[in-house]
Hints:
This protein has helices at about 5-35, 40-45, 45-70, 70-90, 95-125, 130-160, 160-180, 195-215, 220-245, 260-290, 295-300, 305-315, 315-320, 325-340, 350-375, 385-415, 425-450. By secondary structure, it is mainly α. The protein starts with a helix and ends in a 33-residue tail after the last helix.
Amino acid sequence: MDGRAWGMLIVLCGAIFLEGIDVSMMGVALPSIQAELGMSTASLQWVVSAYVLGYGGFMLLGGRAADLLGRRRMFLFWLAVFVLFSGLGGLAEEGWVLVLARFVTGVGAAFLTPAGLSLITTAIPEGPRRDRALLIYAGTSAAGFSLGLVVGGGLTAIGWRWVFFAPVIVALAILLAAIWLVPDTGRPERTDGGFDMAGAVTVTAAMMMLVFAVVEAPALGGWTMAAALAAGLALLAAFVAIERRSASPLVRLGILRSVPLVRANLGAILLTGGYFGFQFIAVLYLQEARGWSPLQTGLAMLAVGADAVLAPTVTPLLVARFGTTRVIFAGMCSAATAYALFLPLAPDWGYAAMFPTMILTGVAFALAYGPLTIAATDGIAPREQGLAGGLLNTSFQFGAALGLAAVAAVNAAAGPGPGPATQEALLSGYRAGLLVPLAAALLGAAVMATGLRHPLDRPRTPPDEEGDPGPKLPAGRLLNPP
Length: 482
């Protein structure tokens, strides 16, 4: 890649890092937000849930909008929305204003993320150079997730509003750089049937209803949750019926015939479901059972950020040597080992006992997160790269919501009941909750094992063994415009 292509990649990595860190650092600031704004515990969780609802609900629409309306246009517009509403969240004096700002910020991320991913996959043809770019991009995203707790703890110590204002400053700098460095994607795809509005409405409503049911599972009654799930599934069935008849479908259902794409999306659900469930238990253990501060907790999780170093350096070599599926399988096995090692957690554990889990979790993300992105976009036509990115990021977000809901439910059922909680009762709930991420990692390994002998997943030629210096990215034009 030439200098301009690297510049574009740096800008897109900055945006996805900002998105990842914005998600993870919010949890550390919640107690301070509750104290200042006087929010109840029930309303406080909507600061997180509103973002997930907007993100998960609009992701498929965001992916297709990038394909139809222009990737650069969508990226710049929704990055500006992200700047505006993150700033509004920092200025909020009422809880409902903060929740609204987080919802719209989540919607912005739903359009921004697939547009950024498809800019990479349409600018660089399939092969080792695209693999390296995607691994750098995915590693940066994973680093944002893992470093968010540390950054959030530091900013909250200054004032919780800086959890919103700091991303505004960074996003504004990224937006200005993107105007110059992100090339014009050319003319968007022309469709005879127009925009599939009916499909857009039904799939967005379906995803929002399903995400709502999953996120609110611990708080909803059994019948209420069943009704929400049934409504979401009914809307999803209506969406499928609409897409089959549409002249210009929002989601071409034939894309789901790609076995590697489906396998990668299942892997994405299980990877993030396991990790966010583990993070939930680890934070509770360190702060509730051990009495650590938010900053100490963030620093304890810092070793997970090893993926930021490993993903762009070691993972490309492993993918080139063994292929994506084998590397993802190894990542799932690493995650399962990490969670199993945390199961016997004790009330007097030193950090040395926790470190193997933290570093193995970072290794798992380095091995699985980026290669899942490669597997989900390989072989997909340029005109559908936004859709493929939307599907993958929907899987990541839905998996995170599902993992959190499942772990929270198990922890509540197995943990202490009403009244003062003993430390052993807390630990019992944590150990039960940890079984969920362990099961998710083992199931993820089983899913990836089905593709270990797939003939299409061959090892790739490393970049340094190719004679061709690689494609150049002309100013203002993509290599493979849709």
